[in-house]
Design a protein that fits this description.
Mean pLDDT of chain B: 50
Largest sheet of chain A: none
Number of domains of chain A: 2
Strand content of chain B: 25-35%
Number of strands of chain B: 23
Shape of chain B: extended
CATH superfamily of the largest domain in chain A: RNA polymerase sigma factor, region 2, helix turn helix motif
Structural class of chain B: alpha+beta
Largest sheet of chain B: 5 strands, antiparallel
Distance between the termini of chain B: 55 Å
Order of helices and strands of chain A: HHHHHHHH
Low-confidence stretches of chain A: 92-103, 108-112
Oligomer: heterodimer
Distance between the termini of chain A: 33 Å
Structural class of chain A: mainly alpha
Helix content of chain B: 10-25%
Mean pLDDT of chain A: 75
Radius of gyration of chain B: 25 Å
Strand order of the largest sheet of chain B: 1-14-9-4-5
Number of strands of chain A: 0
């Protein structure tokens, strides 16, 4: 992710033109994440508000932005801000039953060493190989719906579910091998 | 909705998918100007006034006119390229002194609208070609085998990596006809095709990385491409039906099934399970008549309607060191051979052929010390490291005949090959003066 190195560097120097560049570059990604995490419960104005909060937070913390993690950092902020927004709105979002993966149990609460997991998670996801790694990223990181993933990757929804199921088992196994356990 | 363990991941894996403008659903699109206003308002700045659209259009028209009238110059004497080139193998080179560009058409109806070489944010270099027909007709999928139309914004607006599925492998040939040499290790390249102007303009973007090395000598060569003609050809792999069923695969066991799967897939659908990019086949597994079958699917090879050639210099310098097979086995825990360590300005990489393994164990603790005994360098992206760049972990999948890749910014993490004193991997010194 070093392709954003120059942007990150300019952000650290409080270059306002870099901020605008970042906003224009990452708006589609950020708005998609916000929409996905909100499961469609946020209106356009809400999405714009959370988008703005995301980039304001980025700007205020731009000194912490590292070259290799600009994109990931923005994604994390966007998700946190969306969770905050949902919490303040009473989290009234609903999900299509077909989009729910019943075995989806990667909730944070079971894992206590999040920082340590961060260190290895990307490697583990990469080790899954395509297309499983991409499916995992789309589902868990970008909160895309299974039908969206299937459409984007030219697969059936059943196939995405199966691959997700198996990828999850592999990730758990690899985390367990590295001493992580969600109890 | 609970947060999951992926939510706080900031260093994204290499397989991070592209979520760009094209993939944004209409109902998720936010007004960028509204967001900019909110942001500027919050940080106490007025939103910058932006030129009106009419002015932008006029400026764009002027640029287009300038481009059209300067085409002959552009085509024959390309710009000097600049910026670092990332991706690929251990080391990267800078393109310099690009010249002698020539486009050879195989279709007399074609004409060159524009040909530019440019750098995007100093990280990738592009050859941007626009072709049209003298007859004025539109390009169709049928006539030019445009098998997948790409989204150019994926490269220029939101991401520097094209979306998965829009890549095409290109062969880049060094040398004149009869003396062709395929640069297999030396170059990375992607291409994106699409039409503009209601199909009347065929636009082809080729992204080029140079990662050359000389596997026959001890030194990584510099200026290796000087004076050589480079020809771009296309070579795309597309499954087009089952070509053969490989006998004996029904012996697949339960363990393999969990890896290969397809149980829930339609019985006859071919799923590319593994792609051997050096062959002309996809290999896939299908579930048919209650048994698994390994099949090969024919690939489709198509040619660009032209050959583009140019010469350039590529500045690379570094060192290569042979590593004993026993040492490699100690590192990988598997049989490995033909190992080599590369120390180059853009990074340090380990290269090896391995037998019977596709998924290597973690290679933690890459410690690279310099002669002053103080500095440590990291190898590549995807690895964790501390604030002072000490390697924390590295979990690469190292396939036979591929080396560790890196993507880090040469300017920030440049390695001085002459100043490296020791490289230790998993406690084994693979290089030390």
């Amino acid at each position: 992710m070093k392709e954003y190195g120059s942007l990150a560097s300019r952000l650290r120097k409080k270059d306002e033109s870099a901020l605008e560049e970042v906003i224009r570059k990452f708006m589609p990604l950020v708005s998609t994440i916000i929409y996905n995490v909100g499961r469609g419960s946020l209106c356009k104005e809400d999405i714009e508000e959370v988008c703005a909060d995301t980039f304001i937070t980025l700007w205020k913390n731009s000194g912490k932005v590292r070259d290799e993690s600009l994109k990931g950092y923005i994604c994390c902020i966007a998700k946190t801000k969306t969770f905050d927004k949902l919490a303040s709105a009473g989290n009234k979002n609903t999900s299509d039953i077909d989009e729910i993966d019943p075995a989806d149990d990667f909730s944070l609460s079971g894992f206590v060493e999040q920082k340590e997991i961060n260190r290895v998670l990307g490697d583990i996801v990469d080790s899954l190989g395509q297309p499983d790694s991409e499916i995992v990223m789309r589902y868990y990181y970008y909160y895309q719906r299974i039908s969206e993933i299937a459409g984007a990757m030219g697969m059936t929804t059943d196939s995405v579910k199966v691959r997700l199921h198996r990828a999850r088992a592999k990730i758990k196994k690899k985390l367990s091998e590295r001493g992580f356990d969600n109890g | 909705m609970d947060k999951n363990i992926f939510d706080d991941m900031t260093v994204l894996p290499a397989t991070d998918p592209v979520i760009d403008e094209a993939s944004v659903a209409e109902n998720t699109k936010a007004d960028v100007d509204a967001v900019l206003s909110r942001v500027y308002s919050s940080i106490g700045k007025k939103k910058k006034r932006r030129p009106v659209r009419r002015l932008i259009a006029a400026a764009a028209a002027a640029v287009i006119l300038i481009c059209i009238f300067s085409l002959p110059v552009v085509a024959e004497n390309l710009y000097v390229l600049y910026g670092s080139i990332v991706g690929g193998d251990c080391y990267t080179g800078d393109f310099t002194n690009v010249k002698n560009a020539e486009v050879k058409f195989y279709d007399p109806d074609l004409k060159l609208e524009s040909l530019q070489v440019s750098s995007y944010e100093g990280t990738s270099d592009f050859i941007d070609i626009r072709l049209s027909k003298k007859s004025g007709g539109a390009f169709t999928d049928n006539t030019f085998n445009i098998i997948q139309r790409g989204d150019f914004s994926a490269w220029f607006s939101n991401e520097s990596d094209p979306a998965a599925g829009t890549k095409h492998d290109l062969e880049m040939i060094v040398g004149a006809s009869g003396d062709d040499k395929l640069v297999t290790d030396g170059m990375g390249y992607d291409a994106l095709y699409g039409t503009e102007n209601e199909g009347k303009t065929l636009r082809i973007l080729i992204r080029v990385n140079v990662t050359a090395h000389d596997s026959s000598g001890k030194d990584v060569y510099g200026k290796s491409l000087t004076g050589k003609k480079i020809i771009v050809r296309s070579n795309s792999y597309v499954a087009s039906g089952i070509d053969s069923v490989i006998a004996g695969y029904e012996e697949i066991n339960d363990g393999n099934i969990s890896e290969l799967h397809t149980l829930e897939e339609n019985n006859r659908s071919v799923i590319p399970y593994d792609i051997f990019t050096n062959s002309y086949y996809y290999t896939g597994v299908i579930y048919n008549n209650d048994r698994f079958e390994l099949v090969k699917a024919r690939s489709k090879i198509f040619s660009l309607p032209f050959e583009l050639s140019f010469t350039m210099d590529c500045d690379i310098s570094g060192k290569a060191y042979d590593i004993g097979d026993d040492t490699l086995t100690g590192i990988f825990g598997q049989k490995a051979e033909n190992g080599r360590l590369y120390i180059c300005p853009a990074g340090i990489a380990l290269y090896a052929g391995t037998q019977g393994v596709s998924d290597l164990p973690d290679m933690t603790n890459w410690f690279v010390s310099t002669k002053d005994g103080k500095k440590y360098y990291i190898c590549a992206d995807g690895c964790s490291y501390s604030e002072d760049f000490v390697f924390m972990s590295c979990n690469y999948k190292l396939f036979p005949n591929k080396s560790l890749s890196n993507n880090f910014d040469k300017k920030l993490y440049s390695v001085d090959p002459e100043n490296i004193s020791r490289v230790v991997i998993n406690g084994i010194t693979v290089y030390g003066e």
